[in-house]
Design goal:
globular; membrane; Rossmann fold; ABC_transporter-like_ATP-bd; 6-stranded mixed β-sheet; single chain; cell membrane; 4-stranded antiparallel β-sheet; about 230 residues; cell inner membrane; alpha/beta
Amino acid sequence: MTAPATPLLTVRGLSRSFGPRRLFDVGELVFPRATAIVLTGKNGAGKTTLLRMVAGLEPAPGATVHWTGHDAAPHSAPLDPLPRELRERIAYLHQHPYLFRTSVRENIAYGLRARGLPRHEIARRVDEALAWAGIAHLQDTAPERLSGGEVQRVALARAKILEPELMLLDEPTSSLDGQAREQVIALVRELADEGRTVVMICHDRELINLPGVVRWKLGDGVLDTQHR
């Protein structure tokens, strides 16, 4: 019998309350490798808060994270602040992505410049990301001239170029329709096919029903990771 794959990471003790109200309490949350996951639930259930805590963007007092490091050894640490190694392995995309006031190309290159990569390596990887997202013709365009679908594709390319293992997407198709929505769905499918773990907050039936997608549901303070 084949042994189960080691999880990408595991978070324990993830909880959030607002005054006397317990928004959610998740004892253990396992992120499997190379899996597309949709996170559903009613508005106000805490879906965005949960993913932002995992991404290190919200306080997570008491929570711990456990993962296998690049040295193949097991590691554990408080989730807050997010360990440096995990900051480079996790990407979070906001529902309404913020783009810097510069060109599309410079937006996509930003993260690689921050990491100090050589100029020629940045140029090569940006060219590949532009082609992947189908936005090479927009590389010199200012963000304010982009449509909603184009902004989402720039944001996906900007995240993908950093080669994260875990991508957390907050409703990537919520404000899109028609061809723009179809283009983003196709890119999300490709990210999962590449072997990344992609977790999407989602109400889009087409994304939820993609072949092989795992469904998690958050409701009444409980996260059901076996939802059907």
